[in-house]
From TrEMBL:
One of its GO terms (molecular function) is adenosine deaminase activity. Its cofactor is Zn(2+). It comes from the Bacteria. SUPFAM superfamilies: Metallo-dependent hydrolases. InterPro entries: A/AMP_deam_AS, Ado/ade_deaminase, Metal_Hydrolase. This is Adenosine deaminase.
Amino acid sequence: MREQPASILAQIGTTLLSSYKVLALLRRTPFHHPLNLRDLREATYLGYLPWSARLPDHVFEHSWQLLVQQNRNSTGLLIGVLQAIGDEFFEQRHSELHIKQQKFAAWQQSIVSRISGLPLLVGAQLSEQLHARLANEMHMQWPWEPPQRRAGKNLPVVSPYDPLVEDYLRREGLHETHLHLNGSTHAENCWLRALRMPKQETKDFSLKWNIPSSPDAVAVRELARSINPDLSPTELHRQLVAAGRLRKWLVAAATDTLKPEVQFPHDLSALMDEESLQEEIPYPMSRYLQLSAQSCTADELYWMQQLLRRLKNRYSATLERMFHTYLILQNQYYRLLVQSEEQFGFDQFQKFTYNKLRDPAEEDYFPRFLAMHGTTENISRTTYLEGRISPKDTLRKNHQLFKAVLDGYWCYLNNQDPRSRNIDSTPRKLGEVLVRLEEHFRKTSPLDRSHHRLALVVHFIKKSWTPGRKAGPYRFYKQRQELELTANVLLECLTRWPRLRTWVRGIDAAANELHAPPEIFSSCYRVCQQAGLTHRTYHAGEDFAHLLSGLRTIYEALELLDLRNGDRIGHGTAMGILPKLWLERMPGQLVVKKGEWMLDLLAAWRLLRTVPSAVATAARVADDLAKCAGEVFRREISCTSLEAAMKLRHLNIRFVQAALETDWSVGITPLSDLWQSEAQRVLDAKHSSPEHLKLLWEWLSDQDLWERSETLQSVDAAYFDETTYLHLQQALMREVSHRNVIIETLPSSNVRISQYNSFSEHHSLRWMRAPGFVQEGDPEIMVSLGSDDPGVFAGDLNGEFYQLYGALRNQGISDRTALELLAPINERGRAYRFHDPFLG
C-alpha cells in the first residue's frame, strides 16, 4: 500500500468549490444564465495555479477537458465534480463510507484543509460506483426527522476502516493527552450558527478587524485577504445573509416543496441586501431542517443528498448554480476556521485564534464532548480525554469557565442536550455540578466505556514582549505579573471549590513559543505544584526560528521547569525532525536575534559536552559563544559564568530584584507559604552565587543590553552538519528519557505547522523506531498521542491514529507490525494520564 496524492482532477474540483475567483464569476452571472465555460476555466485555472505551479499547463488542461467531457451530456459540472472526488477518496465498507487508507493523508492535507467534506460525502453516496450498493441504506422518507442516535450528529469527520485497527480500538479505546477545548469545534457546526445568527457570530470578528494598529487585527486582515482580497466584516456578513437565504431555497427544492411557478432569485447580489428582504418562500419546511440551536451536520447531509438526487432526476441549471454558490460561500467561511496546507508555521495558525469566529460556538461545550465521543452510540471511541482551557484572572471568570465546561460534560454523561432540555433540570451552581458528577462516577464502573473520562489541564498563555522604556524593570515584566495573578486566582478557585481538584489536574503553557521562554513560567509552575497541581506539561520545540532554537526551548523547559516523572513536553518537533529534511526545506540563511542566538549556542555547547565524539565541535561552539556573549554584554564573559547565571533563570525575578536592590536578608512579608518558598530560593542563590545572580539581573534588567540582544543577525541554517544536529537531538532525547518525561505527539498539527509535506515524514515514526526512520544512536523515549486543535485541522483523534498507521503501512510495513509499533503511543496516554484515580 502506497500513499497517493490528490489527483489533478480533485485539485481542480476543490478549486471550483473554494476559489474567490470562481465566486466572483458566479456573483456577476445571473442564476438562470449558464456559466461560460471559458470564463469558468480561467477562474479555476487561476485559483488552481499556486497549488501545482511546477506542473506544465497541459496537465491542468487535459484534466479540465476530461471533467467537461465526462459531464457534457449529464447533469452539470458541479455534480460531476462532487461524484468524481467522492469516487477518488471514498470506499464502502460494511454499508458505510470510509476514506481509502492510501488516500487519507491527501484527504486531510489537500482536500478538507480547503473545503468541507460534507458535500463530497454526499457526492460519494450518489456516485455511480457506490449508489447501487448504498441505495437501501440511503432511502429516507419525507418529512425528514433526524436519527434518534446522537453519536455522530455533529461530527463531520470521516476516517479509513481497517479491521485490525478497528478491533484494537474497540478493545483499547483512544487516550487523548493534548487537546485544546477551544479550537475543537468543527467548522461545519460554526457555519450553521453563522447562518442562523450572522450578526452575533461575526460581531467580535468585526471588532477585532477594526482595532487600529493592533498586531492581532493586522493578522486577521492578512488571513481574510489571503482567502479573498475583497473580504471584510461587512462583506462577510452580507455573504452569510445570502447563504442563509440560499439554504432556504435549496432545502425547499430538495424536499420538493417549491411551487412550479416559483420565481427564483435573480443573482447572488439580490440575496445579499439585508434591507430588501424578499417575501419568505411559502413552503412547509420541516422544523428539523430549519436553522435552530439543534441544527446539526446530519441535517445538512440529508438535504444535500436529497437535492443532488433531485438534480440527477430533474436537472435544473439554476438550482445547480445556486447550490454551487452556496458551497463556495460555505468554503470561504470554512477557510477562516481551518488551517490550509498552504499555511505553514505557528504564526499562520495563530491567525485563526485571533479572528474570534469560533468563540461564540465554543461557549457551549456539550457538542464538543459529543463529537469526541465518536460515531458509536454506546461506547466512546475515546476512553481518557484531557481538555485544555485557559484560566482567567478573576474568581468570577474562572467560576463561569469551569461551570460551563463541567455542565457541558454533565449533560454529555446524562445524554441531555442543554439546548433542548428543561432549564429547571440544569445544575444552577458550580458546587451542584461537582456534586452531581461525583455521584455519577460513584455509581460507574471503572471499566465503563460508555462515555469518555475527562481531565482538565489549565494552560497559561505565552505573550510577546517588546523591549523599551515602557517594558518595565525587567524582561517580560507585565506577563510575569499577569502569571502570578492568574496562578493565585486559580489556586483560590481550587480552595473555594475543593471538588474541582478531581477535574483540574495539571498545568501547561501554550501559544507561540517564539513569544515567551519557559523561564517566565518557572515560579508559577512550582507554586501550582506545591498547591497540588502535580501534573505538568509544556509546549516546546513546535515552531522555531532555527533548529537550535527549538532544541534549546525543549532543553530549557526540562531544566527550568524541572519536568520529570510523568510530566510531558507538547510537540517536541525540533527533537524529532530529521536534520537532513529540515536543512532541505529551510533557506540557507536564517535571521535570528543576537541574544537568542547566544542562548542557542549555550544550549548546544552544554549538550555537546555530553557527546564524547564532539569535543572539537564543542570547543568551536565555546569560542563562538564567548564572542557572542561579549557582544551582548560589552565585556568578556566566560562560558561557564554565562552557564551558571542562566541556570538561575528559574527564580522568581520579582524577588531577585528585591534581593539585589534592597537589604533583604530576612525576606519579604507578608507572603503565603507557597510564595515564601520562592523568596527563599532567591535568598539561597544570593548567598551561594552572588556574582552569577548579578549577571542574571544584568541580562534581565539592563535596557541597553536589551537593545543589543534584540539586534537581528543572519546565521547559517547549516551552522552544524547533519551528524552534529543528530548528536544534539540524541543528547536531548537521553535527557528526556533520564527524566522519564513523555512527549505528546500531534501529527496533523505538526504537518500543518512544521516543514513536513506529508505524514510519512513525521518524526513520530522515528520515535516509534520504525525501520528506515530510527537513527543510529537514537535512545528510546516515551510518546503519547493527541489531536491538539481538531477543529482547526479538520480532524479528530481517531484520524490521528489512522494517519500514523497509514504512514507506517505506506513504508511497506505489515498491518500487524504497524499496529505493534503504534499501539504503545496510544497506551502511554492511558498509563501516564493526568486523570484523578477516582475516575478510573
